[in-house]
Amino acid sequence: MDQLLRAGADVRLADLDTRATPGFDGDKAAGEAALAAGADELGALQEKLFAASRAGDERRILLVLQAMDTAGKGGILRHVVGAVDPQGVALAAFKKPTPEELAEHFLARIERRLPGPGMIGVFDRSHYEDVLIARVRELAPADEIERRYGEIRDFERRLVDDGTRVIKVMLHISPDEQKERLQERLDRADKHWKYNPGDVDERMLWPTYMEAYERAIAETDADHAPWFVVPADRKWFARLAVQHLLLRELRALDPQWPAADFDVDVEHERLAGS
Amino acid sequence: MDQLLRAGADVRLADLDTRATPGFDGDKAAGEAALAAGADELGALQEKLFAASRAGDERRILLVLQAMDTAGKGGILRHVVGAVDPQGVALAAFKKPTPEELAEHFLARIERRLPGPGMIGVFDRSHYEDVLIARVRELAPADEIERRYGEIRDFERRLVDDGTRVIKVMLHISPDEQKERLQERLDRADKHWKYNPGDVDERMLWPTYMEAYERAIAETDADHAPWFVVPADRKWFARLAVQHLLLRELRALDPQWPAADFDVDVEHERLAGS
């Protein structure tokens, strides 16, 4: 599945089918069953990674989630990330920068929220906002935005060198699917709080956003920090796909229970005498 | 159940049955079924509290977990807190203070991890370490520790005034139960990473710790920031009890879906035209 989702320098988002389920030929029920089955393995692997970190293993995961509004980031957090022990997850949601954050380097607030060893870090939006909305809305000078691609490449290279496996996901929905989801938020009083009139303003700029995504992906996709474009019109598939990407990294890390750094026999005796 | 668990100034921990299940007359299977049923309500109430916060509701929850080693804090985090959407949980684990933390006021690191509006904050250990292990191990001068009780009272009063519901829980196990649980960590290679020889050192000071807990509870229990002593030899009961305490607070808060702060008809038209 992962090779089918991998996006490279030549990605053309408009050509990708947002209702597709690449690499999975089951239906929604099968997808949900697979998700439930994967949750246990994900939790078990994370616990092992965490255990290894207690003995000095520096490795960790960073999942970066980017998407247009309503694409399903929240559902990924709830249903995929939420299946992991909260002690093993470091979740950071990056909103519109505060005045203090705007006064510092755009990566500074990102640095402060990086996951520690043994953790699965998850970014709900990220430093990519600084080359996405920042580009579309011209929130920074053009040459500054151009410079940021290189800074992001260097930053992610350093993360990887320090033991972080970086997985970057764009949840890809169609404008029609977004319209339906926004419609539902308007139709239901218990969903009004999720609706923001500004979302329609951003929606009007869809093609410009897609260009900004394509450019960001082309500039920053790398084998050590790959981009995946996950078709997200079917929520169940997007969740399964992101879980799969996490599982794949964790299996590759293959964490091991650390050996005791104490004398087990001695401790048995001490404990018995206590 | 909550009144049965409430601890006051006269709490005598040695007199409390750590295997009891006060307020619940079912067995383990019934307890686990009740926990699963409560998880949905907990998640739904938290989502509503979060939604309300988007419209300016400042209210939030802070659950403080304290316990001797192996008492089951991790299981509470995994099985009770883990059932809530991770976007609605702010979990902070307080370890042995760093040199930087020791150089500042003991409440400074706590302040930095307080939950925002709409969140369920959970402290895995807390400022109470500064009157528990600090007292037992004489990590600060005696008069300084005496002063801290009052500072904690003032601190928690302020939290409550700012809209935080404070729930303080001591998971209460027996020394025998702890011995069994430490034994299991020694017996299983996949549990060795959870074993710390220092735990046996602390175990030897059990009565002194119980005195420190009794004193801390007596000094800081208040109707606005109550202490609950939860019998924890039966893990399933402790989880159910803590879930119950959270549910009780959330039901009392009775959060409401916020009204739309936009014109729904206008937005329907804008969306249709986009």
UniProtKB/TrEMBL annotation, chains A, B:
Signal peptide: none annotated. InterPro entries: P-loop_NTPase, Polyphosphate_phosphotransfera, PPK2-rel_1, PPK2-related. One of its GO terms (biological process) is polyphosphate metabolic process. Keywords: Kinase, Transferase. It comes from the Bacteria. Residues 27-253 form the Polyphosphate kinase-2-related domain. One of its GO terms (molecular function) is polyphosphate kinase activity. This is PPK2 family polyphosphate:nucleotide phosphotransferase.
